[in-house]
Amino acid sequence: MSPRIDIQRFFICIWNDFLENRISDRRRMIHFFLVMIMAVMVLFMPEKALAEPSVAADSSETKKPALWNKEVVPVEQEPVMRFYEALERLMDHYGEDHNHWPDNEDRRLIERFLNRKDALTLNNCIFGRNFLGLGIGETAEDAAKALREGAKDAWGRPYSLILAGSKDAPKPVEILYAIGANRGVSLFNRDICTKVFVFLKADLHSLFADIFKNFNGMSILLMAREVHILGAPGSVEPGYEEKLKPALCAADSLYGTVYIGENDPVTEVIPMSFREKMHALFGMTIPKFKGTERKSDECRDKVPPPVEMFRLKGCGHLIPEYQPWIRKYGKTMLKKRETQ
Amino acid sequence: MKRLMILCGFLVIGLAGMSHNGFAAGFTKEAVEFEARSLVNRMEITRDMGYKLKIRLAQALNDPSLQEIVDSKGVGAVFAYAAGEGGLVLKYMEGDGLISFADGLKAVPISLKSWSVGAMIGGSAQWGIGLVIGPVDEKDFGGGYKGGTRTATAWEAATRSMLYVSRTVDEQTQEIYIITTGRGFSAGVGGVVMSITPVW
Fold first, then answer.
1. Residues 21-40, chain B: which have Cβ within 8 Å of A?
2. Is the CB of residue A194 less than 8 Å away from at least one CB of chain B?
3. Beta-carbon separation of A11 and B13 below 8 A
4. What ipTM was assigned to the predicted interfaces of this complex?
5. What is the Cα–Cα distance from A198 to A125, expressed in whole angstroms?
């Protein structure tokens, strides 16, 4: 029941008392005006002030690293922080399958957060701790195989879900549509569109990182407390971190990290749209299609998370080449006991 | 004095009640968008199609012609559906969806069928969001509707795919605007005959 209805009932009770002369005549006038003032205050009180209190983080369960400290996290990010804390507690106690979560405050907090975000329900989402998105050329079968073999991240924590960024090959019709609609070739794995992925940590390699940058919050939704970008196309380009921020805002991330391998040629491949290519090669100007440009309003009511960039000496494109450097320079909020 | 105080009291309690109940005339524009997203999510329509519908609905609701209709008559119900289409010239569409009434049931199932004239290559999948204009009683909703594609408005140009159907019962016209998106090639040019059946 809404707090406003509770307050209404409270007024009605007092009013009944008043009408039935249960309150002495001397005090009736004072009582009346006090009640009226309170009623007017409640009427003009913002909804937020009447909302149910959020669950406080249980500090005994989680020892927070520096970035997880409330003093470091901006006030605007606190609901996001509480969301991921509640998610972590639920997964620690009841596992990653939301069907096993009891109807407690943490679950309700997550339900409220997802509902406010995009009218989402728990059934729309896949939850987990550690996510890996693979790049071009690695198919769904490769992803399933890596998961079966217990692939681990740079800190030795096992991945709970690995998804392929690409499929074997796009169909000719899809290539024509991609060119026509100026959206880039639709190489990405359609499995990514079927659900919303809610994770504590996401490592995104190569093409998957590009998909995340271009489409997160639009045709795909991946939410993660921390996002690590490895060998992404065009990541050497100045201002790459700014271009990443709408996707990070849509992901409700608390921070993002971009790793650029010195010997990774993919990071220097700056993706160009068909229009840009035609203009660069032949000087032709092709008109823009409606609705094909990203509307970067994901950060409108949010504080974009900080993005750190690391240039890694002698590092190539493959994930195992990146991992020692990530371990050396990077940081994670994911708990270590998850490796056990 | 006592009468005045009683009057003031009822006024304040009444105002509090009104402020809680919100939109008496149906869904507001924001509520339409939220309810549509909620229905699309409940039906587990893929994110890419859901996003297209969301953008097209936002564009439609920002169009002055629809804004005027929504402001003056209100939106009594919102529904979302997923359907399959077939046929070469005479197209047949059949699908299922969910509907929410502003002052009634929420996310209850409906089924839709329609015949229309249009060109088509192969089969086609269609997803849509419908806005039922004006107050609507859940007991009276459903039946046969007639209409066609909306043309010659800025809204149609922005959304590209939009249907308008209506039916008249007891001298009252029930209008439905449907924003659609699809996969595969399908183009409607003529009239549409649509049947919406409540399944609750």
1. 34-35, 37-38, 40
2. yes
3. yes
4. 0.74
5. 7
